[in-house]
């Protein structure tokens, strides 16, 4: 037996939670006494509820400890009965309580991570999981149509981070990516969100920035019967449309023997339909110095429907074992109609100049449905000094785009004279009114597509841990393994309808007047009429689809990639006085099989690749408890991220002197990571922390043009992907929150919060510069890396009313690289600040009414080309306002 003693003071208000903590904490030693086993905690100092751990070495004190443990074990049945009547997690009400709950979890974690619980998510008007995560330190989001979609962690792009649901990896619905679009997941299905920034050896090492872990509802999160339901209406100011939303959740615990509520069932359901739109003008960077070659006006009409549900089961037959089944389903349907006015000048023009221009009117109309399914079964059992845990998971993501209009183009019958633009950052057309006369346009071509992508991941893991005494100090040795099998496929079919006159269709039938649809409300100027998708489909529906089928483009974009990963690890946790050390090593072996089709001057070739490689990934974590409120953290880890599936796809297209192809021989990205920081906790919902981080990244991937080099020496284009040299990322992460409850009323309801991440990166790319005929090297920032990311929050609450005003800031970042010798045409997303407000008022104990406002300052999305004066893309969304009603029983 260990030569230490644990002196326990159980305050009445916390005795039951402490008892459960003692019985469930992993870093513990178990004692068998009489007919019961109880766990004596070796990490009591991690829990703030009246537990104090003191080391004892004398034999007499050891005897006293043993007798105390014996008394504790004999009281097993009494404590177990008390556990059935006590909540596993205290019901959280209000902003401060939610933050406090999350901070306790962060404080005791062995990793550096940020946490927000369901009640914290509900405090702000976030549409989805991505927008909820962006409030955390070091996290930002990339948006689509104003909604948060992909998550960036510490400046590293979404494809370099991973997402798990209930501990199992979530595959990506989109065809070429590893990044998971978190706008697929409704926030109502989430019990807690964590962003884990330092990975211990028992975790998958598949992220460079961090892992976003989504935990769904458990019946043991509440005492007895719990249910809640809410309804909401939102108003989009840009389109003047109102949209509904409904959600609900329920849970209860039941007895499966011994009169103890040891079996729990929890269910959640969410549905939202949001109708909105945006107005856009973009050049795509088509600048020649200060002169513009072409630009487009775009109007988006969007309808998004989110449906999600979860059903979870938990069984805890005794204090030493637990078993669970977690399920989650989410469906995201996105209907988008994009209407475009295009202007291409005969000669590049400066602002204010006029000349001849070709005019086009275009339409794209598609429905895209993304689905995510996740099923996780697992359990944990303590046997003597051993803890055995296992888990099996299956996740499936898909994206289905049925037959749709990928592009219908109407061209002007003649060039339009005296055409120009004004404003370089937000170009507005100077155009003769004849441009808006639909009789001046004729249908030139229609592209029709359908696409289906599927990504599945199956995994089984087993972990064994043994607690032991090392020279009087609490220790745990843990080892295990994981087998995962991932399969991703993409199937694209393309039809191109052209030369309509050869198919007996008259010019009159092709005139835009036959397809016009209403006048478009466009906030950025005059736009003209819309185009009817139904009329376009009616036209091409009567044509021979076989003659229009583009087999080359269809087959070249199809692929199947299998990725098998076998992993094993060992790690040791050691508590020495005020220190906790974790050291270990993880092994990951990867085998990849990729199959695709190449098209060489019209002829088809099979393209296959098989690769095997492995990584040894050490990790060292340390935590030092300066006092009961302050702790230091340090971590050195190695992690790995495999290239995206689009980058690895083996398909290629070679046509005369032009080529484009994936690169299945890309090396995985590897990173050595160093993290150092300090955390100080103060009162309720109070913390201040500072962390520095440094990442040394090898083999990062970038787009390149190999034309003019090697086997591509005689090509004008040879676009593919390559591994870069080394890249470095370093930064400072600051966070602060505090409830000012020491102020006099009513100021004691104030709550302040702020976080900021300051980062810098250094990377370089190599390529052939066709303008000079030489190879050259160029220094760049890492794509998606903002130098400054931050949040500020001001809240106030009392027993009835809760108010919260927040601002989220993200500085400019590199979005897209131009050619190796043309940095002036690199595309950057400009800085953005989103301001949101929420108010909640409790009508009764169970009934609450809410008002929310998003994007109060009407923040646009602006992409610039090289310099802020030159437009790449400008898009406006307008504010959104919501009112809601929530009923909760707990």
From TrEMBL:
Q: What is its main location?
A: membrane
- Please indicate if the UniProt record lists Glycosyltransferase as a keyword: no
Q: Which Pfam families match?
A: Plug (PF07715), TonB_dep_Rec_b-barrel (PF00593)
Q: What is the protein name given in its UniProt record? A: TonB-dependent receptor
Q: Which domain of life is it from?
A: Bacteria
- Residues covered by the TonB-dependent receptor plug domain: 106-211
Transport recorded as keyword? yes
SUPFAM superfamilies with a match to the protein in the record: Porins
Give the organism the record lists: Pseudomonas viridiflava
Q: Which UniProt keywords apply?
A: Cell outer membrane, Membrane, Receptor, TonB box, Transmembrane, Transmembrane beta strand, Transport
The segment(s) forming the TonB-dependent receptor-like beta-barrel domain are 415-856
Instruction: Give GO cellular component annotations, separated by semicolons.
Output: cell outer membrane
Membrane topology (UniProt): Multi-pass membrane protein
- Alphabetized PANTHER family for the sequence: PLUG DOMAIN-CONTAINING PROTEIN, TONB-DEPENDENT RECEPTOR-LIKE BETA-BARREL DOMAIN-CONTAINING PROTEIN
What family is reported? Answer: Belongs to the TonB-dependent receptor family.
Q: Where in the cell is it found?
A: Cell outer membrane
**PROSITE patterns linked to this entry:** TONB_DEPENDENT_REC_3
